[in-house]
Batch of 2 targets.
Target 1
Amino acid sequence: MHRILSGIRPTGDIHLGNYLGAVRNWVEMQHLSQQNLFCIVDLHALTTLQDTDNLADHTRTVAAAYIASGIDPNKSAIFAQSHVPYHAELGWILGCFAPLGWLNRMTQFKEKAGKHKELACLGLYAYPVLMAADILLYKASHVPVGEDQKQHLELARDLAGAFNHRFNSDLFPVPEPIIQGPATRVMSLRDGTSKMSKSDISEYSRINLMDTPDMIVQKIRKAKTDMEPLPETVEGLENRPEAQNLVNIFAAISGISAADICARFAGSNFAPFKQELADHLIEKIAPVGTQMRHLLKETSELDKVLAAGADVANKLAATHMVEIRSVIGLLQER
Ligand code: AQP
């Protein structure tokens, strides 16, 4: 059975990277699989919680982004991770089988903990184990994510295999990552070598789904480029990270190939290219933002969608947890 699971942390405004690298692919896939679970991973958000964060609001905003992008609540369960307590339970259990050596290799922990590794919290370190639990709890077969989650997905696959081997069972299917499309890693508009990210302090580093058309034009106009004109071929984008990123975004949002884009703008400066890129973004992104604002006016409706999604998720997770506890040998509750 094909069961898709993925999620986004409610840590800020959903941006073009989240959309192109993840949500847009989910929308296409939801009709191809038998079951879809799209989670708002609020427990993961606690690992980097800021004083200014409003988790409840951000959680609803992510739910609105899913629906406005085209996730159909009648076809896919949309729910908050914290509304299904089994995620935390399985996270603990898997943590007892995750060798520290595996966790020490995780590059995201190194990046996010930065120079102050000793001050980083245990949750940030254990993040990939909870992510493995998110996936294995539902026996998800496919996990569509952006490129940055590849390593965590590999850990989830290793943990599934290690658990199955340890208990001589085939309880967990080994989940397949789906990292596809022309924008698996969208870069910052201010620095073509850094990932576009919600936590970047510069608003001009990203396009948010709720940006107005004016903001989109402003951000694209100010997007960093270099002094060279656009090249004739994609090979000419090598070692030009900002130009490459903008061409990739153009290709992903318009459906035109990078080769055709280069051929069309060859030798031109960035102004007409940026104008057309902004037009494409406004056409695709602005309606999503408008729909999100509309959905966020009726939070009770959003909460109903989240409650219905949590109901589906809790029932499935409860059944699997009984199997998991039994395989481990924990005394079952009567
Ligand atoms: N820049 C990106 N390009 C392509 N895909 C991306 N994703 C995130 N950034 C990009 C994909 O979006 C999904 C949800 O990611 P997340 O928000 O849960 O965590 P993240 O990867 O840590 O995203 P951010 O924006 O960088 O958040 P912060 O700043 O809070 O850490 C995932 O499938 C991810 O691959």
Target 2
Amino acid sequence: MKGKKILLGITGGIAAYKIAFLIRLLKKEEAEVKCIMTPASCDFISPLTIATLSENPVYIDFWNQKDGQWTNHVELGMWPDVFLIAPLTANTLAKLATGYCDNLLTATYLSAKCPLLIAPAMDLDMYAHPTTTNNLNLLASYGVQILPAESGFLASGLIGKGRMTEPEDIVVTLNNFFMLKNSMLGKKVLITAGPTHEHIDPVRFIGNHSTGKMGYAIAEEFLNRGAEVLLISGPTNLTLLHPKLQINKIISANEMLSVVQNNWLSYEIGVFCAAVADYRPIVQEVRKIKKNDEELTITLIKNPDILAWAGEKKKENQFLLGFALETNNAIDYAEKKIINKNLDAIVVNSLENEGAGFGYDTNKISIISKKKQITDFPIKQKKELASDIVNYISKSFIKK
Ligand code: C5P
């Protein structure tokens, strides 16, 4: 962690006393540490202790009452490589989840551009409350990495889940974070995402419920690890900005195919998440179809299979991952797709699982390899699954 800039947010829970030890560990690793404390946290640990150990001034207020100097939360938010909030109380968690910024720490959260890690700590009933669960899930859906609370003795005298992850474990997580950060440096990844719209006439189309969330989350995960990404996206409401991201927005399957054909051979990894329409109207009317007859027949013609094209052209040094969404016999169909489309692996999501698939923030997936090895994952936030999928690809790609 030598030279890494860590902004440490401390909130008002009893676990704040452990932060002195955490800062010692981070300094031993030669990280640079700056701390923001909420006013409530100063009752649990003295700012003097934190300033001395971190070897930096501690930031608490928006402005210093003595000399009138203003603390620039925007600059503070731009400074770190990572922002860690530990311990995170239920109160500050709720503020982060709603964008409430009544102190320097919460305002800096909204300004910060770097990845955020949080280590919640609270009494067991507060931790188990659905409000807390929802707030944590919401932050996870924004890409915040959560270091879940652990079980054990709590300051209230009760025993249960709510203890902050131990400082040594936080250091391990941070070390992993920095290791992964550049693990995909120099890799070129092509991703298809979202639905395609197939025009019937100037105002109507055939489409599907895909929102693109899974594909965008995978793109973001690759970017966070240093990869260069070409995201070929059908119509979605999502936005993603990154210096190493090139987004190519298309509407129809044929448009998606042509972008893939122009690029695939100069990429090493292909992740095909798009829910491509299988058929398109054979004729796309130039004028709006009038409602005259009782029945209207639209003849459809099969769309090109973009993934199958990429599989056919695939070279030895390329890794190709497809997706399969099935309502029944998911594993059987997926195994056939691996062969028919010449894939290295396939992600199967079955609509049989509640909370999985189109529009949800969560998904339940299994990944099947070319050798028919199945890896099952529990139901998770799509952002967390994106990280699992990228881990899987990086392991398999190295083996290849
Ligand atoms: O055959 P099926 O449509 O179930 O295959 C799904 C996989 O194939 C997904 O990875 C999807 O992105 C891709 N696909 C494609 N072009 C199509 C149809 C599906 O790239 N026309």
